[in-house]
Amino acid sequence: MTAETLAPAKINLFLHVGAPAPDGYHPLCSLMVFADIGDRVGVTEAPGFRLGGPYGPALEGEGDNLVLRAARALAGRLGGREVPGLILDKRLPVAAGLGGGSSDAGAALRLLREAWAPDLSDRDLEAVAASLGADGAACLWGRPVLAEGRGERLSAAPGLPVMDAVLVNPGVAVSTPAVYRAFDAAGRFSAVTPPPMPEAFESVEELAGWLAQTRNDLEPPALALAPQVADVLEVLAGEPETLFARMSGSGATCFALCAGDYEAETLAERLEAMRPDWWVERCRLGGPWA
Ligand SMILES: C[C@](O)(CO)[C@H](O)COP(=O)(O)OP(=O)(O)OC[C@H]1O[C@@H](n2ccc(N)nc2=O)[C@H](O)[C@@H]1O
Ligand SMILES: Nc1ncnc2c1ncn2[C@@H]1O[C@H](COP(=O)(O)OP(=O)(O)OP(=O)(O)O)[C@@H](O)[C@H]1O
């Protein structure tokens, strides 16, 4: 392996979604943070694409992986390059609201810029990432960001503490397009503007209090498609270590913010014992980790 890097899991701390535009895409406003866990992406001299890890089989036999599409898009932007060997160690569940595909693409773009064109600007790399999906640019750097527009208009996130957290997925894949369609069918649209946001949150407790005034507008439609999400949220809400719990993105992964390392560890251990069928990961949110 010549180089490898983390493709961190993305968490939408809040996700406000408006009525769809004529092209079907939705205006949104979301505060995205990244976990110190995720997939691993590598570049090698031996040609070809190798897919491994616990969730690799979930992507076998699909069309072109986002890692390959990212490599080809950057090669095209640079006027043509031979794509080297690429490795994806898929550790995050697929179609889970963790932005895994976008983060994998971002990791590949960072590695290949280093190899091919270290002078290419961050802005140009963001444009390539954005061409791969609405979350592409936001998931490029693995650092907290406020995303607006379709998700491609980025601005600095407020100052955030590092958050000890637990991620829980009930083992059900949820399709992002299906969740947006169910959101449209319900026809309940609100303003996407968040309540006034301080320049910085000094503690996770302060952040949790502020987040309670915000929403994930995709939670109700995702719950309708995957009722298992309700079980996860109910369990998390009932645990003493949970300061704040919510679903991320289009689901089905939910996150619980905890007061510290010990609380997150305790919560994760209890959930693992209680529900061995769930994917449970203790992590830290914030970043940049990549
Ligand atoms: C749910 C989120 O992950 C929240 O961060 C994103 O909004 C989705 O981002 P993404 O998966 O990168 O999105 P894309 O791959 O571009 O599109 C997937 C599907 O989501 C819908 N989509 C996506 C973003 C957006 N602002 N409005 C949408 O309606 C698109 O119609 C498409 O059917
Ligand atoms: N490297 C990849 N990792 C995950 N999915 C990929 C990858 N490459 C292509 N895909 C396709 O992208 C779809 C969405 O996967 P992903 O895990 O990124 O969903 P998600 O976490 O719900 O994304 P988001 O939160 O951005 O909507 C998958 O169902 C799969 O068909």
From TrEMBL:
EC number: 2.7.1.148
Active site (catalytic residues): 10, 135
Gene Ontology molecular function: 4-(cytidine 5'-diphospho)-2-C-methyl-D-erythritol kinase activity
Domain GHMP kinase C-terminal residue range list: 201-273
Residues given in the record as ATP binding sites: 93-103
Keyword Nucleotide-binding: yes
InterPro entries: GHMP_kinase_C_dom (IPR013750), GHMP_kinase_C_sf (IPR036554), GHMP_kinase_N_dom (IPR006204), IspE (IPR004424), Ribosomal_Su5_D2-typ_SF (IPR020568), Ribsml_uS5_D2-typ_fold_subgr (IPR014721)
Sorted UniProt keywords: ATP-binding, Isoprene biosynthesis, Kinase, Nucleotide-binding, Transferase
All copies of domain GHMP kinase N-terminal, residue ranges: 65-142
Pathway annotation from the record: Isoprenoid biosynthesis; isopentenyl diphosphate biosynthesis via DXP pathway; isopentenyl diphosphate from 1-deoxy-D-xylulose 5-phosphate: step 3/6
Keyword ATP-binding: yes
Enzyme category, top tier: transferase
Pfam families, per database record: GHMP_kinases_C (PF08544), GHMP_kinases_N (PF00288)
Reactions catalysed: 4-CDP-2-C-methyl-D-erythritol + ATP = 4-CDP-2-C-methyl-D-erythritol 2-phosphate + ADP + H(+)
PANTHER family: 4-DIPHOSPHOCYTIDYL-2-C-METHYL-D-ERYTHRITOL KINASE, CHLOROPLASTIC
Family, as annotated: Belongs to the GHMP kinase family. IspE subfamily.
Purpose of the protein: Catalyzes the phosphorylation of the position 2 hydroxy group of 4-diphosphocytidyl-2C-methyl-D-erythritol.
Name used for this protein in its record: 4-diphosphocytidyl-2-C-methyl-D-erythritol kinase
Gene name, Swiss-Prot/TrEMBL: ispE
